[in-house]
Fold this sequence. Notes:
The protein is 74% helix and 2% strand.
Amino acid sequence: MKEPRISLLSLRQVWEKPGIFVFSALVIGYNILVGGYEIEQGKGFTETCIAIVGHMTNCIPYAFFLTMIGFEIGGWLMIKYRMFMDERAQRIAKAEAKGKAQGIAEGKAQGIAEGKAQGITEGKAQGIAEGKAQGKTEGIAERDRMWTEWNERRLAAAAKGQPFDEPPPASTTPAPPQ
């Protein structure tokens, strides 16, 4: 969205009041210096007033020019600063993305190994979410397979009327939900 502008040399409206302040400060400051100088010359009142007014009319275009140049240089510096900060942010983001991709790849490999070994327990490191999910799935499938095989053996023994004293799968793996 563009900022509203006033027609005078396309000055941004937000800079209108600071511009008037700077312009006024330049004119007043110059006239104070020139006024003191002209009064010290010891000329008559009329000659002194004419000299001060002459200096003032000469000062106004220069003050206007300096104000415009000052604000344009300030705007240019702000644009350069923004460009520098954007480039810096891009370089930082690029480096972070590269590091994150490397960390995710390492974490995924580590997560698959840990997830498969632990089954339903959660992984310990960040960045291994995909590997952990895959490892959990494989671990749960392995656990369910072990329980299903054990249950089939138990039911087969019960159907034959044989005693079944085989302990359930590892006590560290909880039974699947019923």
